[in-house]
Every structure is written in structure tokens, then in C-alpha cells.
């Protein structure tokens, strides 16, 4: 069995460093499959003998899901080592000119839900939308509270298109 902390580090590094396009037309059709391919390349290079696989929620059958409060939730990307769930990734795209508050709140909320089942959850927000540099007073506190639940927020912006 592969070390889950090493897999989490590989996920983090991939999401932080993978080059981003100038824009994405669609979150599900473009960004999620792009992130999946980047992760699969990382896993093949870093863990060639491990049975790591990614499942995205777009299309197909057998999507991983979680039932809660009378409805179902499924992460955008699930990482499995064999039959064991290792991590979930919630992917959010904030388009140019759009406000970020609703998308960020939805992504964080969904990630908290996924933390019920998954040992590690990554909230991956690609933010091309409107943002005010004056409103960052509570960023560190949010990151600290999320980390207690093994949820990590990774926010990428236009300015870091290629890391």
C-alpha cells in the first residue's frame, strides 16, 4: 500500500504547480479532465507500481457518492489506491468578471461534506473572477479550521498561470 501522506503531497504539488490555461470554457468538460490528466501523470511518475487511479464525476457510471440529508454529493475527482479512497478533490472555476463568494462558499461546503468519508480533501479553486485585495483578513483562520478536518484550500489565480 502506498503512503497516503506522500500521495497527498503529490496531489498538492500537482494542483499548485500545473500550468493553467488563460481560461476554461467549462469546469466539468475542460478543467476537471485537465486536472485528472495532470494527477494521473504525477502518479505514474511518482508511484509507478502503486494502483492509484482517479475517477471524475463527469459522465460515466459508478461515480463515488456520499448520501447526506436526503440527497447525494459526489466529489469532482476521487483518488483511490486499489479499493481504498485516499482523497477527494472539489474543483471550482470562477470565470473572469464573476464574483467569487458563492463559488468559494459552495466549494468549501462540499469539501466539508466529503471530509466525512475521505481522509484528505482538496478544495481546488481556479479563480479568474473578481477579487478585492483588501478582503483577506480571515484567510489564515479559514485555512486553519479546514486543516483540522483534513481539508486543504488551494486557490489559483490568473497571475500564476504557470507555476
TL;DR?
This protein has helices at residues 4-17, 27-46, 101-114, 139-147; strands spanning 52-56, 66-68, 71-73, 77-81, 84-94, 121-127, 151-157. The protein has 163 residues and is α/β, with parallel strands linked by helices.
Structural key phrases:
163 residues, alpha/beta, 5-stranded mixed β-sheet, 35% helix, 25% strand
Report what the structure shows.
The model has no long low-confidence stretch (mean pLDDT 88). Helix 1 (4-17) crosses helix 2 (27-46). Helices cover 35% and strands 25% of the residues. A five-stranded mixed sheet has the order 1-4-5-6-7, with helices on both faces. Strands 2-3 form a two-stranded antiparallel sheet. The two termini are 30 Å apart. It has four helices and seven strands. It has helices at 4-17, 27-46, 101-114, 139-147, and strands at residues 52-56, 66-68, 71-73, 77-81, 84-94, 121-127, 151-157.
Indicate the proportion of strand residues: 25-35%
Number of helices: 4
Low-pLDDT ranges: none
- What structural category do the secondary elements indicate? alpha/beta
- Main beta sheet strand tally, sense and closure: 5 strands, mixed
Number of strands: 7
Distance between the termini: 30 Å
Can you give the helix content as a percent range? 25-40%
Assembly type of the shown chains? single chain
Shape: globular
Overall average pLDDT: 88
Radius of gyration: 15 Å
Order of helices and strands: HHEEEEEHEHE
- Order the strands across the largest sheet as they lie in space: 1-4-5-6-7
